[in-house]
Amino acid sequence: MLILRRADVTDVLSGQETEIIDLVAETYRLHDAGQTAVPHSTFLRFPEERHSRDRIIGLPAYRGGEQPVAGMKWIASFPGNVAAGTERAAAAIVLNSLDNGRPSAFVEGAVISAKRTAASAALAARELTTDNPPASVLLIGCGVISLEILRFLAAALPGLREAALYDTDRSRAQAFAVRCAEVAPEVKAYAVDDVTAALGEHRLVSLATTAAVPHMDLSACGPDTTVLHISLRDLTPEAILGAVNVVDDADHVCRERTSLDLAQQRDGNRDFVAAPIGALLRGTATLTREAARPVVYSPFGLGVLDMALAEFVRQGAERRGLGVRVADFLPA
Question: 198 φ, ψ to 5°?
């Protein structure tokens, strides 16, 4: 058993934004071509009121193709950690040998989860704005995921020059601007107070919050706006129904009371979903933008992305001699 700590994972993935985006894109293509197995995630919730916002999610997945991999991500989301000064999410990934099924690696998963999420967002931003790449982005929610999204957007959109930052806690947004300057020095990052005005000033918007229920619409957005709806529960069902919607997998994202699930419950169908990202990448579907309707990308966050990136990390760690190997984890 190879155990890879956060430092090992970070070492392998540092500066690999373009490679990670390419890996995510290829995984989406395989998923759309039916070469993955991605069962529905399992949500563990708790009966006590003090844990009403907390959950732990299990995501099993298999990626086929030239480098097949299978495993499971177990990720906890405790939003109250943020106020306490610690990270909201903690995760671990187990990879299993496809020769005998035995666990082969135990990998710190929070960094992988954040980077695959950000790579998915940046990939969508690039693909959905090819004809008119944006020079600025509005980041709503100033946490770990938004920082990674900015890092990956800077790699995917070379012309990006500004990042407006909004958080319900202005001091958090101001502190976040300093961190943004470190990960994307070519992008001017600054806090804003009026989110409604900011929505009308930026053609690219990213939502990465801890919202549990919808709290905003897109009526303030200008024409040709692309929204990266990463946290999945920010937008009202009406906003979803009024948008051109792209997803990673409709079966996964239209459940667990996401904004798209609520839109589905209201209309009784999923006709509001225009296309999956994998089909757009493969060219088996096309997307027509409408000036009066924003394009909204809502990725559930498929576990197969975690497996693909964890295997990328495992291979990189093996080459570098990183990690701790426990020879007697299993009987000989």
Answer: -65, -35
Burial 28-61 (b: 16+ CB within 10 A, else e): bbbbbeeebebeebeeeeeeeeeeeebbbbebbb
Q: Mind listing the domains of the chain with CATH numbers? A: 2-112+303-325 (3.30.1780.10), 121-298 (3.40.50.720)
Q: Could you give the CA distance from residue 145 to residue 161 in angstroms, rounded to a whole number?
A: 19
CB-CB neighbours of 251 under 10 Å: 11
Q: Which residues contact 282 (CB under 8 A, 6 or more apart)?
A: 29, 32, 33
132-151 residue pLDDT tens: 999 999 999 999 999 999 99
Alpha-carbon distance 264 to 308, whole Å?
Answer: 30
pLDDT tens-digit map of 218-266: 999 988 999 999 999 999 999 999 999 999 999 999 998 999 999 999 9
DSSP state of 27: H
| 134 DSSP 8-state letter | -
| Torsion-angle region of 303 (φ positive above 0: left; ψ -120 to 50: alpha; else: beta) | alpha
Residues 6+ apart with CB under 8 A from 69: 62, 63, 95, 98, 307, 308, 310, 311
Q: Residue 4 forms beta bridges with which residues?
A: 107
